[in-house]
Amino acid sequence: MNLTAILVLAAGTYAFRVAGPLLRDRLRLSDRVRDLMSTAATVMLFALVATSTLTKGQGFAGFALPAGVLVGAVAAWRRAPFVVVVVLAAATTALLRLAGVD
Question: What residues form the membrane-spanning segments (predicted)?
Fold first, then answer.
């Protein structure tokens, strides 16, 4: 990637990020639209987690990775510290892969 493309992408990213605070007072959204945007953000985040958990390359990621994510989700739901959540998820995935579960 050449320097021009990098600079154009950087400027576009910066402009996109600064547009929010600059347009906050000019744009009025109804409560329904705000609720829909909040729901859409949650759905998009869930879709990202689901695709990165269940797929690897072009195929299924196996059962070890989703099991690790599930253990991490349960630990987070039980309000475990973040480090504990990450270690539990990684350990679960690693132990299952060590045991031959792919």
Answer: 6-24, 36-54, 60-77, 82-100
Question: Is the C-alpha dihedral spanning 35, 37, 40, 41 positive or negative?
Answer: negative
Cβ atoms of 97 and 64 closer than 8 Å: yes
Beta strands 55-56 and 59-60 are antiparallel
24-77 per-position pLDDT tens digit: 788 788 899 889 989 999 999 999 988 888 888 888 888 999 999 999 999 999
CA nearest 63: which of 37, 33, 93? 93
78 vs 7: CA distance, rounded Å: 44
Distance CA 66, CA 63 (A): 6
Distance CA 56, CA 59 (A): 6
pTM of the model: 0.63
- Beta bridge partner(s), residue 70: none
CB 41 within 8 A of CB 69: no
Q: What are phi and psi of 29, to 5 degrees?
A: -115, 145
